[in-house]
Amino acid sequence: MRPLLHIHSLSDLLTLLARHRGKMLAVFALVVTAAALYGALGTKIYRSEARLLLRLGRENSSMDPTAMAFRSVSVSQTRLSEINSELQLLGSHDLRERVVAAVGPAVVLGEGRQDDSDAALLYLERNARARLVDDSHVLVIEFEHRDPDVARTVVQAMIEVFQEKHLAAFDSPGAYEFLDGQLQTIEGQIAVKEEALVKLRADLGAIAVAETERGLQTQLAAIETAQSSIESELAGRQAARAAVTTSSQVEAAVVPLRTTLQELQVEELRLLGKGYLSTSKSVFSLRKTISKVEAMLKAARAEQQSILDQEEDGITKGLSARAEMLQQHAAAIETELAGLGMKALATARLERELATLRGNQSKYEQSREQARIENALSQQHMTNVSIVQPAVLPRRPVRPNLILCVGVGIMLGLMAACGTLLLAEF
User: Fold this and answer.
1) Strand partners, 285
2) SS3 helix, strand, coil % of the chain, rounded to 5?
3) Secondary structure (DSSP) of 256-273
4) Residue 272 φ/ψ region, left for φ over 0, alpha for ψ in the -120 to 50 degree band, beta for the rest
């Protein structure tokens, strides 16, 4: 191995190239020829593609019919998120399985290959793709294969399976039957409540409810006023009896006895003032008379108080009886008012329930009609997916590219020639 020649000028470089031009040209020609042969004789790969346009359709402008029957739902979904959802459907494992089952694993893998579903799924995953064209709502489906007819067949199968999955994803199976059953239930409830409302209105038809209620309320107010007056009078009498033990009426009835007692007491004091002893016969006799008069005064007061108590009890019992009678009358009026009020309340409640049921009935009718339209559109396979370009039959392979292979071969040949030069100088 000899050391690399030192190049000091252009003539040295030319000398070096001239010395090894045969080797360099041979290596360059060999590399370029190999690249050209690969580009001309290599396995041809064909790419078929189809284009789908995602329009604004019922999938975007309406909700599920069963969701419309209930309260509103706020949904903020952009077109980009909708398109990404479609891309997820196109890239799903289930779609690939159905495509392989539709065209057959042997067709996907090519002639001479075993009927292996797993291998076909793996081949389809590696060579099929779906993408979004920039600044558009167009999806591109592509598949590469050695056979152009197979490439077009697989792309067409992917479109068909995608349309089926798209319909199934936005379909609501059983929605019409569910909504129809709910509507029949509501109609039955409306019929029952309408019958009950007719009966209540018939009961109240001959009664001027508002006027009757006003009259009863007036009577009840008068009774309450009378009850309040009686209660105040009873309370006043009880307070007066508790505060005064001996009334002026009792004292007025015993004035003669009280005067006599006072005269006897004055006489007693006069005798004692003259020097009579308390044991003297005159004083003793006078005191005995005073005791009798006091006993008579006490008995007279008790008798008069009893008479007054009886009179007061009679008045109190009369007031209490009147208050009880007013209470019974008030209870009867309240019962009558309650009966009218219950019927009026029952009528108002039934009217509210009927209004609610009729509102629900209208919502369910709209949702059922929406479900019917959805079913009809699904049966006709009408979606917001339009095929703007069906699967095309490729005429030229996408690889290998002869011009590209020759260009790459020239670059690699130059690099290989330079490498040969360096190796030759070691």
Assistant:
1) none
2) 75, 5, 20
3) HHHHHHHHHHHHHHHHHH
4) alpha
DSSP 8-class letter at 133: P
Instruction: Provide CB contacts within 8 A for 275, sequence distance 6+.
Output: none
| Distance (Å, whole) CA 216 – CA 333 | 6
Residues 31-46 have pLDDT tens digits of 888 888 877 777 788 8
Structure tokens, 403: 């011009």
List pLDDT tens digits, range 131-149: 988 888 899 999 988 889 9
Determine the straight-line distance between the first and last CA of the chain, rounded to whole angstroms. Answer: 5
- Interior angle at CA 300, CA 296 and CA 306, nearest 5: 145
To which H or E segment does residue 129 belong? strand 128-132
pLDDT at 60: 55
Hunting for tokens 């005159």 — which residue is that? 282
At 143, phi and psi to the nearest 5?
-150, 135
The SS3 call for residue 387 is strand
Phi, psi of 249 (to 5 degrees): -65, -40
Q: For residues 145 and 108, what is the distance between their CA atoms, to the nearest angstrom?
A: 8
SS3 422: helix
Q: Which two tokens stand for residue 107?
A: 């067709």
Residue type (1 letter), 27? V
SS3 246: coil
Sequence length of the chain is 426
Q: 145 forms bridges with which residues in the sheet?
A: 46
